[in-house]
Design brief:
alpha/beta; uronate isomerase, domain 2, chain A; 7-stranded parallel sheet; 18 helices; 9 strands; 53% helix; globular
């Protein structure tokens, strides 16, 4: 007979470990203060985030160009009026704004946008970064760093004092999917490339990737890929991945992060909000992992329908690490399902979530909401263990949460000798 299980004690162990453990956010679009206006923060950036612009133009349509011609504050006012005052903010994106307001010490029930704005007028970006990281209990984030972005490239050319809480990731979407543009840019920067992807051009692309890796010190290279992504393939994308990205990844011992499943601009009038989702071919991932065992792959997929097959694939290859519930998956009901599925199939050998935050404030709500979900999931799993006769100890729970909240990522992305 097993001893009586102290269910309340196990639940408290889990809740305490999840709330107190600082985490690593492995994929964001936020920046440290060196990057100036590329760092988005504050209530108006929060309200004009593309999830909310898509939602407000569904709830209260107006001509797209008229909406985009509004100032940021006017757009924020429009979102606030139609999504928070004329109806309850029940969607996850709207609820996130309410959570942020509460985390900052305001009473969301007062619905006073003016007083919230006044809080930010006297706030300085470095102080706000400290405040958000502390409240969200985040110890490190990984940025998204695009060498083809004119503003960002100029900043990386300066002598800057890096904030150690912000790691870099080398983003290469345009290199893979707009070779005509990328070729012209590489030429302008002194790389001897031609439109045809011959041996010399491929060598120069590798040099470009090595130069930028030396400059920014990325923890991984990354690209957002469409549902139709195939490999190998005799397209510029396939050729550059095979002959440049994978060799440089092996040389530098850094992973290639693939975020697969984005259908770009199905409604271009919505701009950043105009992308959609499609199911991917998992066989492509199996081929990459099996044929390139010396490369490591961080993978997240956007379609819910891909998740079970992705988990099974991750069981087969130690050079594959799946991460996060991305973009359209970032909804509590879906996160709960996927997190349970991953724990049941992979144990602790996965990265359960990342924020994908474009606005600094989103760290507040995305991690508070996720912590609530994973507390519920882990409580159930540890109670199942206890009912099977396993003694659940506090130190074990703390260790396990540390794996889920950053240790697994740190180990997988560590530079290997």
């Amino acid at each position: 007979m097993n001893a009586a299980i102290d269910r309340d004690a196990i639940k408290q162990m889990v809740k305490t470990a999840v709330l107190k453990t600082p985490l690593v956010d492995v994929h964001t679009h936020i920046f440290d203060v060196n990057f100036g206006n590329l760092l988005l923060w504050g209530i108006d950036d929060l309200l004009t985030y593309h999830y909310l612009t898509a939602e407000v133009l569904l709830a209260a349509p107006m001509p797209y160009e008229k909406f985009w011609s509004l100032s940021k504050e006017e757009k924020a006012d429009y979102v606030w009026h139609h999504l928070f005052l004329e109806r309850s903010p029940i969607s996850e994106a709207c609820r996130g704004v309410v959570t942020c307001i509460q985390e900052l010490g305001f009473d969301p029930g007062e619905r006073n946008l003016k007083s919230i704005r006044s809080f930010f007028r006297d706030m300085k970006a470095p102080d706000y970064i400290d405040l958000v990281f502390n409240k969200a209990n985040v110890r490190k984030v990984v940025m998204t760093n695009d060498p083809f972005d004119d503003t960002e490239r100029e900043i990386w050319g300066r002598e800057i004092h890096r904030d150690s809480r912000f790691s870099a990731a080398l983003r290469i979407d345009r290199l893979l999917y707009d070779w005509k543009y990328s070729c012209s840019m590489l030429k302008s920067w002194g790389y001897e490339v031609e439109n045809g992807l011959g041996p010399w051009t491929l060598r120069e692309i590798r040099r470009f990737l090595l130069d930028w890796s030396k400059r920014i010190g990325p923890v991984y290279m990354a690209a957002s890929l469409p549902p139709s992504f195939l490999f190998p393939e005799k397209s510029p994308c396939g050729i550059i991945i095979e002959h440049c990205v994978l060799p440089v990844g092996r040389e530098l011992n850094i992973p290639f992060a693939m975020m697969i499943g984005v259908k770009k601009l199905v409604n271009p009038d919505l701009r950043l909000a105009g992308d959609s989702v499609g199911k991917c071919n998992i066989g492509v991932l199996e081929k990459l992992c099996s044929e390139y065992p010396d490369n490591r792959f961080l993978v997240t997929m956007l379609s819910r329908e891909n998740q079970h097959e992705l988990c099974v694939t991750a069981r087969k290859f130690s050079n594959l690490m799946i991460f996060g519930c991305w973009w359209f998956l970032n909804n509590p009901s879906i996160i709960d399902e996927i997190t349970r599925e991953r724990l049941e199939l992979l144990g602790l050998s996965m990265i359960p979530q990342h924020s994908d935050a474009r606005v600094l404030d989103q760290l507040l709500y995305k991690w508070r909401h996720f912590r609530k979900i994973i507390v519920n999931v882990l409580e159930e799993k540890y109670l199942d263990l206890a009912e099977s006769g396993w003694k659940v100890r506090e130190e074990d729970v703390n260790r396990d949460v540390q794996f889920l909240f950053g240790k697994t990522f740190d180990k997988f992305t560590a530079i290997k000798s």
